[in-house]
Amino acid sequence: MNNQQTVFFESIKSALPDYQNLALSVAEALGISTNEAYKKIRGTSLLSIEQIVKLSNSFDVPFLYSPKASLSVTFNYLSVNEDLDMVNYLKNLLSHIKAIKNSKQKHITITTDDIPVFHFFKYAELTSFKLSFWANSTNNQNIAYNESFLSDEIIGLSKELNAAYLEIPSTEIWSKDTITGTIEQIRYAFEAGHLSDRKLAAKIIEQVKYCLTDMNMYAIGSKKSIDPHHTFTWYHCDVLGSISYLVNQQDRMTCYNRFNTFNYLRTEDQTYCMQTKNWMQSLIMKSVSFSGQGEKQRNKYLYDAFAECDALLREIEGT
Questions:
Q1: Percentage of the chain with pLDDT > 70?
Q2: CA 315 to CA 184: how far, in whole Å?
């Protein structure tokens, strides 16, 4: 128990902002003295089940335990329910991103065959289209897309998510189909009649191109903003196999795996996270770098992507 308790408090400490004292925060959450909180943190006084639950709820940090003979991994999940409560989904996602951003040490590594949500969140119409398309596919509905599909609150949350992500150092590994997937979604929605406004469809395609232009600028400078600490590394790998986000924060890692289109399974099981990290590092070894000096390969990738966008534009304008 002592070892698991020590790891638990390390996870809580990593989740706290730098200015927040661990012992004082634990004492406040449990209603105990600071001296007793220090004993809990050192492991000389064991936590009760009720105290573990209190701390987990207070700091949104799970207490992880697995018998030695078990290979099981505990996951939490971020999801949009059947009522499409996207506001709470985005608020939950934003709280996680802000917690990562506020950590002293942080880094996100992404493997993806779809444009990471944080990039298209910068553009209102593209955000509305992607979320409505996902809503259709997730809930087996036929929602006709228009500019008023999402509320101003959701658009505001999306822009906050984009801004927060830009402040987190990151590495992204894209596949050859990462851009194609979004283009095919736009094509399908237009042909199926869910996106009937040609001018709006053209605007969404233009915003995909803006996303790619953003990516090019991040890659050229190897950073996502004027702040040199907001580093960015971009790779291309032909075959990925899954959409995963690995977050490194001080002494712990967290892994997010996407499922059911845009819901996420989350775990802080360090063995699982380390296996994911090793897998990502092996992918990088097999990938082509688009950052910094990888201009030739990057330009070809982007040229092909812009050509796909322009071809779809011609299809829509010529219909």
A1: 88
A2: 12
Q: Token match 């097999």: residue?
A: 286
Residue 264 neighbours by CB under 8 Å, 6+ apart: 77, 78, 79, 245, 256, 257, 258
Phi, psi of 113 (to 5 degrees): -110, 20
| Span 33-50, pLDDT tens digits | 888 888 888 888 888 888
Residues for the chain: how many in total?
Answer: 319
Q: Using an 8 Å Cβ cutoff, are 136 and 74 in contact?
A: no
Please work out, in degrees rounded to the nearest 5, the angle formed at the alpha carbon of residue 188 by the alpha carbons of 187 and 192.
120
Q: Where are the domains of the chain?
A: 2-59, 76-318
Residue 134 in tokens: 């996902």
Parallel, antiparallel, or unpaired: how do β-strands 170-174 and 106-112 relate? parallel
Mean pLDDT of 91-115: 90
Residue 132, number of CB atoms within 10 A of its CB: 22
The better pLDDT of the pair 226, 147 is held by 226
Strand partners, 255: 246, 267
At 231, list the tokens: 């580093």
Average pLDDT over residues 151-178: 92
Q: Which residue has the tokens 């001080």?
A: 250
Strand ranges inside the chain, DSSP E: 76-78, 106-112, 170-174, 232-236, 244-249, 252-259, 263-267, 288-289
CA-nearest of 108, 122, 119 to 233 is 108
Burial-class residue 148 by CB neighbours within 10 Å (0-12, 13-18, 19+).
Answer: exposed
Report the mean per-residue pLDDT for the chain.
Answer: 85
